Amino acid sequence: MKTMVASVSLLGVSALVAVLSFAKPGMFLSDEELRLMEAVAQNDLTTVREVIETGVDINAQDARGRTALLMAVEGHSLEIAKTLLEAGADVNLQDDKLDNPFLLAGAEGTVDIMKLILQATPNFTLYNRFGGTPLIPAAERGHVEMVTLLLSTKVDVNHVNHLGWTALLEAIVLSDGGPRHQQIVALLVDAGADVHIADKEGVTPLQHARQKGFYEIAKILESVLGK
To answer: How does DSSP classify residue 121?
Structure first.
């Protein structure tokens, strides 16, 4: 029996209704749901499998809106993520920060987990709290392998987030301009990234690269622009 409901029921129906009106995911987790999430947090694959066998709701969300699968992605726990996905974990459920397993895997650069998630039909029209796709933070953080993988999917290479940045812009504006980001810029351009899309202030990727002294990146962009 759900712990919170058991407590509130002692106060009567009106109290229960009042609590439910302000309820959020995670307030009414069962003991088995809590056990599942604790096992994921502790990277305890054996217990995760045991709890799944009880028929637990694999997609239960904690007080922060996180599912067990999202926690597995946070912990880079490949085998647990695989086990949860095989049990029917939803890759699209978003938490309070609008992260979901698909979006977070991109940001974390967990390529092996992302390969599994892509087999579970992720929703490419769901975005993170910045209005971005998984490609954008992957490009920003220098995750070359993740960028390569995502560019083989239907992800929109020219998607603009709430900050006014594309993956190409973030790979320049928020990077150190080093070899990994140089490679990512080249990958994005080869995949059709529009080098003309400027930020909210009208500054283009090439202008940003020049301003930051990223000469190798500037050369890549200049070759596309014919400058």
So the answer is: -
Q: How far is CA 129 from CA 36, 94, 107, in A?
A: 26, 10, 12
CATH of domain 1-126: 1.25.40.20
Question: Within the chain, which residues score under 50 in pLDDT?
Answer: 1-11, 13-23
Superfamily grouping for domain 128-227: Ankyrin repeat-containing domain (1.25.40.20)
From CA 162, how far away is CA 33, in angstroms rounded? 35
Interior CA angle at 72 toward 56 and 120, to 5°? 75
Predicted pLDDT at 22: 40
Predicted local confidence at residue 16, as pLDDT: 38
Distance CA 33, CA 225 (A): 54
